[in-house]
Design brief:
alpha+beta, OB fold (Dihydrolipoamide Acetyltransferase, E2P), 3-stranded antiparallel β-sheet
Length: 145
């Protein structure tokens, strides 16, 4: 079971995305927790560049071995870039979620107000991650090695 989680990022505990803010912009990707329950990704589609999307609204869809559904925006913003490498090779989400497997970049529009809904800080992130893995394991949701 993968237990590698980067603790220098922010995490959306509702939708399991990581957020790397840089000024008024941010890069967004899926946390490794998604892979633990979804399996290998096989297809991904994004909303269009230039589209403004509010927190918890859909910014695209993902199809994996065990899950098909909408991806919900972890923060409000306007899409400025999508990772075409992930569109052509969705497995990058599984193999390199923090590197080549990032999803999109946005211009943040309400980050100050939304920051408190995110998990930050190494200790908080580790506690949350371990608690989520235990919850998934207790419910039998984890992909078996």
């Amino acid at each position: 079971m993968q237990k590698n989680i980067k603790t220098d990022l922010l995490y959306d505990p509702e939708n399991y995305f990581w957020i790397k803010p840089e000024g008024d912009k941010a890069r967004i990707g899926m946390s490794p927790l998604v892979e633990q329950t979804s399996g290998s990704f096989v297809a991904i589609q994004f909303s269009k560049i230039g589209e403004s999307i509010s927190k918890n609204e859909s910014f695209g869809s993902a199809e994996a071995e065990k899950h098909v559904g909408h991806m919900k925006m972890p923060v409000s913003g306007t899409i400025t870039a999508i990772n075409e490498k992930v569109v052509s090779n969705p497995r990058l989400i599984n193999t390199d979620p923090y590197g080549e497997g990032w999803l999109l970049e946005v211009d943040l529009s309400n980050f100050t107000a939304e920051y408190d809904s995110l998990i930050a800080g190494e200790e908080n992130i580790r506690k949350w991650f371990e608690a989520e893995l235990k919850k998934f394991d207790d419910k039998g949701w984890l992909a078996q090695p």
